[in-house]
Specification:
By secondary structure, the protein is mainly alpha-helical. It contains 4 helices and no strands.
């Protein structure tokens, strides 16, 4: 389980990546690199701004 502080830090970083035009795959790679558990990623991606319509395979990868 990721601490709330670290979760917010990585969420903010992911939001910046999206604002810079990076893909959901790029954000996923970031989350994996920093050790965010796979079971936490699906709840973070919508907070970053990624939806099922944008890349359903990437978002459903964790189902």
């Amino acid at each position: 389980m990721t601490s709330e502080f670290m979760r917010q830090v990585h969420l903010k970083t992911a939001q910046q990546y999206k604002a810079q035009g990076h893909s959901v795959q790029y954000v996923l790679a970031h989350f994996h690199k920093v050790g965010i558990p796979d079971d936490e990623i699906p709840e973070l991606l919508p907070l970053v701004g990624f939806t099922d319509e944008q890349d359903p395979k990437a978002l459903n990868h964790f189902d």
